[in-house]
Amino acid sequence: MKTNTTNTQQWSQKDQKIAQEALKKAYTRETEALVAEINQKASQVTNINDIWALSDYLNSKRYNIDGKYDTRESTSIFVLAQLVKERWLTLDELTGLTPSTKAKVSALAKMS
Fold this sequence. Notes:
This protein is mostly helical.
């Protein structure tokens, strides 16, 4: 996970801790779901083309996941909103964030 102190949003230490815990929870959920999905897909491999397709899929997922879980404070609002939108997190799991931060996450999660 990337880290950086440059930000446009001021994060309290409490908000930072809640955000980090939420990111870890979502990452665990998403990677566990991916493992289950890959186990299912791998059980259906019958030829070399299936292997290459699975490899391409894994590369795509790795790129997506590695990019998504950016922990720089300047992107945390957007990352949390994306994870709520994708249902890897719920707003209830962000309880404790300052009301304005949680409201921003909620608003961004509703955008398409």
